[in-house]
Design a protein that fits this description.
18% strand, Alpha-Beta Plaits, alpha/beta, single chain, 18 helices, Rossmann fold, 51% helix, eight-stranded mixed β-sheet, four-stranded antiparallel β-sheet
């Protein structure tokens, strides 16, 4: 519930816009609705000049028997054409018949003729005109009695009257419904937008977006991307030690994996910082570690270690140098730089020499760590992941979106890479760093 409230506060402007647009839409729609008015005329049919009770009974039965026929006559051209001409209606007999309803209550000779129109006055005038023309048709079609008079007589019981109260559309109701609909649409848009663009902010966000475990959460100060590792006891060092433990466990479960690709979700220096810190931590433990810069586009790991940028992996892949010519040692760590990639870096990485190189050299070390380029939108990271035995994805808290993380996982999987887990990296701003140090001083002073 709290997350929903926070989301509503963050996107309140869009929600209000949805409500306002919905209300305006409801008001506009209500203005397009035509209001139909109904007006009813009531008439009575009887047999003319019934002299005795038996004549009346027989006449009543006869009248009831012919009522369905008279009801059909109401909607016939013999009645409606004269009505259209009399009132100068811009319609046809067929269309007018569709707006007329005839009702004859059972066992009666009463007929209700109801006309529907957008004008209450025109509805009443039309209903009364229909009754007049029906009377003429009845006189014409009715059987003849004595003195050649029509046997049936029609009398008006209740003429149609125009409604004095003007019917209107309940505009407020439509505005309310429109506002509610606009709010629902806005909520749906916010939900879809958040699911696509929302950055990962926690371990659960990462696990939900990638279905992959988080190996460690590491916090770096400021924009630091330079080795050596953070001082012991810092958040970064603690996170790196956790990562070391979890990677060792993950590799052990897979039968002693010895080559690990460290790949960022999108282009950033986070993966390089994580890989360098991890390699130096492992080297401090007197493990033989080989760090390979496989990000041929940036080739920046050499600068982080104070090493030469070439020759390196690029030269190995094109066959102009071998491992011995590219190997450098820094802080007890064996290192192969990216080298100078001439041409397309992606084409170099798909070289048939990459996977054999990683496989052969990993047998000489306890662990080979290869830093890769971004998993999305380019294919560099996925290519390196396919060449290594397992891969660690690096996502930045508050920046890497769920969509990008999910896309990176899919791309690595499609390329044939095996994902061991995700490292969640956070960059602390300068102000946050100062506040953290001040808090630590206060805590130390209280002790």
């Amino acid at each position: 519930m709290e997350s929903v409230w926070n989301l509503a506060r963050a996107r309140w402007l869009l929600l209000i816009a949805g409500v306002l647009l919905g209300a305006i839409g409801g008001a506009v729609y209500s203005g397009t609705i035509t209001v139909d008015h109904r007006s009813t005329a009531v008439v009575y049919f009887a047999v003319d000049r019934a002299k005795t009770a038996s004549d009346y009974t027989a006449g009543s039965s006869f009248a009831q028997s012919v009522m369905p026929s008279f009801a059909q006559i109401v909607k016939s051209p013999i009645v409606l054409d004269p009505v259209i001409e009399e009132l100068d209606l811009q319609t046809t007999a067929r269309n007018l018949a569709g707006r007329i309803q005839v009702d004859v209550p059972s066992n009666t000779t009463v007929m209700n003729v109801t006309v529907t129109d957008t004008s209450s006055l025109r509805a009443a005038m039309t209903a009364n005109a229909v009754i007049r023309r029906l009377d003429e048709a009845v006189r014409t079609l009715s059987p003849r009695g004595e003195e050649d008079n029509p046997a049936m007589r029609m009398s008006s019981v209740s003429p149609a009257v125009a409604s004095e109260k003007q019917s209107t559309v309940n505009r407020a109701t439509f505005e309310l419904l429109g506002a509610l609909g606009g709010l629902l649409v806005a909520v749906a848009i916010v939900g879809i937008w958040e699911s696509v663009t929302r950055p990962v902010r926690s371990v659960s966000d990462v696990e939900n977006a990638s279905s992959t475990p988080v190996l460690a959460a590491i916090t770096f100060d400021g924009k630091r991307s330079v080795a050596p590792v953070e001082p012991r006891g810092s958040e970064s060092a603690a996170g790196t030690l956790v990562l070391h433990t979890n990677i060792a466990a993950a590799c052990g479960k897979r039968g002693g994996v010895k080559s690990v690709a460290v790949v960022p979700v999108t282009a950033s220096d986070d993966a390089r910082a994580v890989a360098v810190d991890l390699a130096l931590v492992m080297a401090r433990a007197r493990d033989r570690i080989l760090l390979v810069d496989g990000d041929l586009r940036s080739a920046s790991v050499a600068g982080m270690l104070g090493a030469e940028s070439a020759p390196g992996l690029a030269e190995i892949l094109v066959g102009s140098a071998d491992f011995g010519q590219t190997l450098q040692v820094r802080s007890g760590l064996d290192f192969v730089a990216a080298g100078r990639a001439e041409g397309n870096a992606a084409e170099l990485l798909v070289s048939t020499r990459l996977k054999p190189f990683l496989k052969v050299e990993s047998t000489r070390y306890k662990m080979l760590l290869a830093v890769g380029g971004a998993a999305t939108p380019v294919a560099d990271g996925a290519t390196l992941a396919a060449a290594a035995e397992v891969t660690v994805l690096v996502a930045r808290r508050g920046q890497t979106t769920r969509r990008d993380l999910a896309a990176a996982v899919d791309r690595l999987s499609s390329a044939g890479g095996i994902l061991a887990g995700v490292v969640l990296v956070q960059r602390r701003s300068g102000l946050a760093r100062v506040l953290m140090r001040s808090r630590k001083r206060l805590q130390d002073g209280r002790r």
